[in-house]
Amino acid sequence: MQFALVARFQAVAAPFGEDALIQFHRQISYVALVFILTHPILLQLAGTDIVGLLNLAQAPLRARFAVASTVLLLVLVATSVWRRRLRINYEVWQITHGLLSVLVVAFALAHMLLVGYYLDQFWKKWLWAVMTAALVGLLLWVRVIKPLIRLRRPWQITEVTAERGRAYTLTLRPVGHSGFSFAPGQFGWLVVDRSPFAITSHPFSFSSSAEYTDTVQMTIRELGDFTSRVGQIRPGTRAYLDGPHGVFSPDRNEGPGFVLIAGGVGITPMISILRTMADRGDSRPVLLLYASHSLAEATFYDELEDLERMLVLTTVLIPENADPDWTGERGFIDAPMLSRHLSAQYVRRQYFICGPAPMVAAVEDALASARVPAERIHTERFNFA
Ligand SMILES: Cc1cc2nc3c(=O)[nH]c(=O)nc-3n(C[C@H](O)[C@H](O)[C@H](O)COP(=O)(O)OP(=O)(O)OC[C@H]3O[C@@H](n4cnc5c(N)ncnc54)[C@H](O)[C@@H]3O)c2cc1C
After folding, report:
1. What is the CA radius of gyration of the chain?
2. Residues 354 and 328 in one domain
3. What is the predicted pLDDT for the residue at 385?
4. Is 384 in the pocket of ligand 1 (CB under 6 A)?
5. Are residues 32 and 134 in the same domain?
6. H-helix or E-strand spanning residue 241
7. Does the predicted TM-score (pTM) go above 0.85?
8. What is the rounded distance in angstroms from the CA atom of residue 209 to the CA atom of residue 272?
9. DSSP sequence for 341-377
10. 233: which DSSP letter?
11. Position in ligand 1 atom list of the atom nearest CA 385
12. Structural domain that includes position 344
């Protein structure tokens, strides 16, 4: 089940959103870990000499598999929980995570088959054989079949445009196929100048209007290994896109109006939503609260004025650092700031929040205390993994 949760099946992810699935994947791992650690303790209490079996030099193969699986599971969990603290590079972690997961399951299966006790009935053997086949099928689907499909649907980066706030917009054109349509606010997994079989792809929201499908755009802020090199990408470079993904979209959450709350590069899905609304002549009211380090770093700042003229849009810019003569809001978005801008009628609007995890959490809490119903609050976390 854990493998299926993270296999990026659009149909599975659609009702929840991919970040919710990843969060569930993480939480259910803790539950599984508790069960797995409890299992030998219960056996010991019931009279089986588990401690004796820990003497690996003499222990039977079934016990060695159990120990190997459990130790690798502990390593798997520790490297995921403390990835940043252990300074493990994301790509290294992703590959290790995949390999360890397969080994944990394979060793556990070997242990279960060798113990035999719970799997002695014919139908149980079949059940586990089918589940193993499903797992192998899933790996083949994610790592072979889907990349093969993407190989036949390449994209080309036609423009690389510098934006305010250490960001670049990539314009991508489908080559030899019709591309895809997406809902504003959705994202895709991008691979640049590598084969679609590359283990690591990076998720980015589409920043262009969903009404324009000849090309798609993604706006990327310099942050780490991959994103810092985006400015050096040459037009003409080949890319592969897996998408669209995600449920963070007004098209999936209709309402009489919208409140968009963006922090930093979290503006990208919002600009797609606003550009799409402008192209559709959508006259529903929108309030945009946009927090950034400074006005100079506020990506798309210049375009917001134009969008205000085309839409029923109110923009509140919130620089963390502003000149002394700046009379608008400043600092971090918090409950008092929200209450200054959200009047009572805003309760019926749909809320979209995207930005750094602490901002998203703080705004979610503030909206909950302002009695905005949870089903109208939609979030996108850019660091869900
Ligand atoms: C749904 C979604 C939409 C996003 N949209 C945008 C956007 O429009 N513009 C933008 O600038 N950024 C966006 N991001 C963030 C972007 O994906 C990361 O900043 C980028 O992948 C970092 O890669 P790096 O190698 O430069 O950084 P690193 O220094 O390697 O990583 C920094 C952090 O980014 C995350 N990360 C790194 N690689 C991946 C990966 N392959 N998959 C998932 N997470 C990863 C990890 O949490 C990591 O700790 C989005 C993220 C998500 C989840």
Report:
1. 24
2. yes
3. 63
4. yes
5. yes
6. strand 238-245
7. yes
8. 5
9. H--GGGGGSEEEEEE-HHHHHHHHHHHHHTT--GGGE
10. P
11. 47
12. 255-381
Span 16-36, mean pLDDT?
90
Mean residue pLDDT of the chain comes to 92
Q: What total number of domains does the chain contain? A: 3
- Name the domain boundary from 97, 126, 150: 150
Domain check: are 95 and 58 in the same one? Answer: yes
Check if 224 has its Cβ closer than 6 Å to any atom of ligand 1. yes
Domain stop point among 189, 213, 245: 245
| Nearest alpha-carbon partner for 242 in 339, 141, 312 | 141
Residue type, 144: V
Q: Closest by alpha carbon to 289, among 326, 225, 339, 233?
A: 339
Asked if residue 139 and residue 197 are part of one domain, the reply reads: no
Please check whether residues 91 and 197 belong to one and the same domain. no
Query: Is 224 contained in some domain?
Result: yes
Residue 85: DSSP 8-state? T
Task: Dig out the tokens for 167 from the structure.
Answer: 């960001």
- 190 and 168 in a single domain? The answer is yes
Q: Does any domain span residue 250?
A: no
Instruction: Assess whether 24 and 38 both reside in one domain.
Output: yes
* Omega prior to 174 cis, within 30 of 0: no
Span 306-332, pLDDT tens digits: 999 999 999 999 999 988 899 999 998
pLDDT digits (tens, 9 = 90+) for 128-147: 889 989 988 988 998 899 99
Q: Calculate how far, in angstroms, residue 383's C-alpha sits from the geometric centre of ligand 1.
A: 6
Check whether 11 has a pLDDT greater than 90. Answer: no
C-alpha 280/C-alpha 249 separation (Å) is 15
Residue nearest to atom 42 of ligand 1 (CA): 202
What pLDDT does 51 receive? Answer: 86
Q: Name the token pair of 12.
A: 């599975």
Question: Is residue 268 lining ligand 1, measured as CB closer than 6 Å?
Answer: yes
Ligand 1 atom showing the smallest separation from residue 268 Cα: 8
Nearest to 333 by CA among 315, 314, 317: 317
**Alpha-carbon span 281 to 292, nearest angstrom:** 28
Q: Is residue 365 part of a domain?
A: yes
Q: Which pLDDT band holds residue 384 (cuts at 50, 70, 90)?
A: low
Residue 208 sits in a domain whose CATH number is 2.40.30.10
Relative to beta strand 202-205, strand 187-192 is antiparallel
Question: How far apart are the C-alpha atoms of 169 and 217, rounded to whole Å?
Answer: 6
